[in-house]
Write a structure and sequence with these properties.
The protein is α/β, with parallel strands linked by helices. 52% of the residues lie in helices and 10% in strands. The chain has one domain: 3-Layer(aba) Sandwich (Rossmann fold), CATH 3.40.50.620.
Length: 207
């Protein structure tokens, strides 16, 4: 089991073939750097599964940006859209909606999206799965990897260690987003993070 970024880099550099990788993508900006790192080493299919996003118009906007980026980036990457099932997200955060970001609410959200990824990966015969979520400095990479390895044990598909914020990955994603004129959202995605961000901005203005 890979548990650090250096071992991850050594692993991908020593691959002697391109395994099939299902890459869960939370949005186009976070996918930029991740695809840059992975494209030489894997046969990648991007899986857009983000039931947390609210409202639907925001979901659709982020999905369209994802599709546009994959086209403009001009690499041989396939894309699967999981559809919008917001009730699935509401079910996994029921009773903990108020906890805020970087809490159990987010852990359950990671779990939902990664579980859907591994289920599709199992169904379609992928060798590996991973996620772009770890690129964001607001996301807990330890949680993400814990979930990934637990799902690997449960489903029998190899999990690819994920901590794409390393080596200035987040800064690189900002530069690439500017280069490709990508829409960068100002909240994580769910209605709860949206309200928390709006409340924070309102308090700042009032003070």
């Amino acid at each position: 089991m890979i548990d650090n970024y250096n071992d991850f880099i050594n692993f991908i550099h020593n691959l002697d073939y391109k395994p099939k990788l299902l890459l869960h993508a939370c949005c186009a900006p976070c996918s930029t750097h991740c695809l840059l790192v992975l494209r030489k080493y894997f046969d990648i299919t991007v899986f857009y599964s983000n039931d947390n996003i609210y409202p639907y118009e925001e979901y659709e906007k982020r999905l369209n940006e994802m599709k546009r980026f994959l086209k403009d980036f001009d690499i041989n990457v396939k894309e699967i859209d999981d559809g919008y099932n917001h009730d699935d997200f509401l079910d996994v955060v029921k009773g903990i909606e108020h906890l805020g970001e970087r809490t159990k609410r987010c852990y359950n959200c990671y779990m939902l999206r990664m579980k859907k990824t591994v289920e599709i990966g199992k169904k379609l015969g992928f060798e590996y799965f991973t996620t772009t979520l770890s690129l964001s400095p607001y996301k807990n990479s330890d949680w993400i990897n814990e979930i990934g390895y637990n799902l690997e044990k449960e489903y029998g598909i190899k999990y690819l260690y994920s901590n794409f914020k390393k080596e200035n990955g987040y800064k690189d994603s900002i530069k690439m987003s500017e280069e490709y004129c990508l829409y960068r959202q100002n909240y994580c995605g769910c209605e709860f993070s949206k309200k928390e961000r709006e409340d924070h901005e309102r308090i700042k203005k009032e003070n």
